Amino acid sequence: MSKVFTETQLSVLYHWACMSELQALKPGNVHIFADGHGMTIDDFIKSADVTAPLITQSNLSVGRRIYLAVEATQHTIGLNTNLGLILLCAPLIHTALHADVNLSLAQNLQLTLNQLNIEDARLAAEAIVLAKPAGLGDALVHDVHEIPDVSLLNLMTAAQNYDRVAWQYANAYEDIVEFGLTQYKTAMERWGNEAWATCSLYLSFLAYQPDSHVTRKYGAAIAGQVMVEAQELDAEFKGAINPKLVQKKLLTWDASLKSRKINPGTSADLTVASLLASCLV
């Protein structure tokens, strides 16, 4: 039911997921159509390039994958371009390297999460401090600056109400396995175009729930407003015979979000992880 991948294969797939997300028009985020929030698309391309061969090494723990990828990003870019997606992709990659072929991706992933230990938590905490995010680090501010005494799964479980990346650890990646994979598959069947399918996937996440990165920075009311705006565009986009007809409205909303300094980063991270997971099932 599951496939086992080599580190070379996973490096290619992880890099593809990162690059595919950049090729899609994702309002509020950096993408091929527009930079934003003091970051350029080149920053994200370099981040994918330097992290792909590190996060997929076969002999690493999940925590070590996270730390090495974040360290390489900070050394190369000096910006937090990818902490969330690294935190999400590391367990997926580890699972794909060590999968039991008789189990499903979700079952193998749960085994990976259950086996996370205190050392994984320590390395992940160091990575979060290194990245200095306006994201998960805020939820764990009293934990990540101290040596954790619990497993990475327990650390994430403690933060799940503040951060949807942490929520995935605590809930067996339900948003990705149950929602994201279905949304991407449906969009690919409809349009047969990876960029538009990825755009649809991203809009689906934005419309599905308030983006936790936006919630932490601006509060529940603004995050809820962004979700309502996303729901209107998501419905129009999914109903379009040709999604390109909605491109102008998406670009207008992209400019509006960026003028308000709103960056739905969690939805982008979930998009990358869903793209990677789509290659593993």
Summing up helix and strand content along with how strands pair, one would put the structural category as mainly alpha
Count of discrete alpha- or pi-helical segments spanning 4 or more residues: 16
**Uncertain segments:** none
**H/E topology pattern:** HHHHHHHHHHHHHHHH
Q: What overall geometry do the principal axes of the alpha carbons give?
A: globular
What is the mean predicted local confidence, pLDDT? 94
Distance between the termini: 8 Å
User: Multimeric state of these chains?
Assistant: single chain
Reported for the largest beta sheet, the result is:
none
Please give the CATH architecture.
Orthogonal Bundle
Which CATH first-tier class would you pick?
Mainly Alpha
| Beta-strand content estimate | under 5%
CATH topology: Triphosphoribosyl-dephospho-CoA protein
SSE layout and pairings?
Blueprint: H1 7-23, H2 41-55, H3 62-76, H4 83-97, H5 105-114, H6 118-131, H7 136-139, H8 141-144, H9 152-159, H10 164-170, H11 174-191, H12 194-208, H13 212-218, H14 220-238, H15 247-259, H16 265-280
Written description of the protein model:
The chain starts with 6 loop residues before the first helix and ends with a helix. The chain has helices at 7-23, 41-55, 62-76, 83-97, 105-114, 118-131, 136-139, 141-144, 152-159, 164-170, 174-191, 194-208, 212-218, 220-238, 247-259, 265-280. It has a single domain, classed as Triphosphoribosyl-dephospho-CoA protein (Orthogonal Bundle). The chain contains 16 helices and no strands. Helix 3 packs across helix 4 (83-97) and helix 11 crosses helix 16 (265-280).
